[in-house]
Amino acid sequence: MMLKIAIAGTGWFADKHASLLAAREDAQVVAFLGSSLPKAEKIAQKFAGAQAFDEIEQMLDTVKPDAVYISVPPMAHGRIEDAIVERNIPFLIEKPIGLDMETVNRIQDQVTTRNIITSVGYHIRYTDTVQKAKELLETRKVGMAVGSWLGDMPGVHWWRKQSGSGGQFIEQTTHIVDLVRYLVGEVEEVYAVYAQQHMHTKHDGVDVADVGAVTLKLAGGAVASITNTCMLPFGHRSGLELFTDKGVLEIQQSRYLKNHEGSQTTEYKNLLNPYEIETDAFLHAIKTGDRSRILTDYADAAVTLRITLAALESSRSGMPVKLR
Ligand SMILES: NC(=O)c1ccc[n+]([C@@H]2O[C@H](COP(=O)([O-])OP(=O)(O)OC[C@H]3O[C@@H](n4cnc5c(N)ncnc54)[C@H](O)[C@@H]3O)[C@@H](O)[C@H]2O)c1
């Protein structure tokens, strides 16, 4: 069965998804949607048989895709998804899935009513090390999670604007919040302190915070602390440490899991490509109807977005935000 896939977005991650799809025998990349036609044409040229569009409705009605991959910046969500769900088309969407709950709730209502297959690009869940951590946690009690995303500022213009990306915690560190939810539990309360320390003096038009510390109260009593910065001149590290009754699990997102048990440390390396597994799970669901291999869907990602939006709200008000 050959699935026709259309892609909304023309940036580096749209290209990454398209390349993974083009390497498969059961999928063909048939179209790209760009914010302008020349951008869409440029990337479409790289994939044999792909057409270029600058209007979502026209793309969907012309190529009639079996699924759409949505890989656009956070501020561009809304209209694209409305057109896709109206036509009952399954979609895989990159994180974060939006910048406001009103838009996301509207889309979620349609996804639920129409029972549409969705998947969200929280690819770290699909790493073999996170799966190993999940297995080890079955017999452990987590008391505390300490996470971080410490690095440089992505070069794309929209990332530097609050109205474009939502800021680092919403755009990037969302992966760590998602991991806390996946491995430890749901978030009940959020308190955040953000500041602009350096990047707004280095580049014009930067209005996102470049340092931040967020405290999360989790269901069941565990606590989490997540810090992030984008003011470094290089990527430093990102990951999550889980403090448990049997020792410490240390996850460095794209590299390894270390299981520290006193004098003994066992290291597990990531051996598989999580993006391949993510796409495989999504296409399997479309072909068979079996969604069990999809590790996070639109409704689940909406919960993560709500937490990261609450952190922004707390950083502005100076008050904790209760979620439940
Ligand atoms: N899961 C991951 O590992 C991962 C990694 C990188 C990026 N991402 C996510 O992918 C998304 C895209 O990031 P990127 O790095 O490719 O950004 P990018 O800036 O390289 O590309 C974004 C593209 O979207 C296009 N675009 C903007 N508005 C549009 C619209 N309304 N319709 C169609 N196209 C539009 C832009 O022209 C641009 O080509 C972001 O949400 C980002 O967080 C995820």
TrEMBL record:
Superkingdom as given in the UniProt entry: Bacteria
A Pfam family of this chain: GFO_IDH_MocA
Gene Ontology MF: a single term: nucleotide binding
Span of domain GFO/IDH/MocA-like oxidoreductase: 131-250
Residue ranges annotated for the Gfo/Idh/MocA-like oxidoreductase N-terminal domain, each copy included: 3-122
Alphabetical list of PANTHER family matching this protein: D-GLUCOSIDE 3-DEHYDROGENASE, UDP-N-ACETYL-2-AMINO-2-DEOXY-D-GLUCURONATE OXIDASE
Protein name: Gfo/Idh/MocA family oxidoreductase
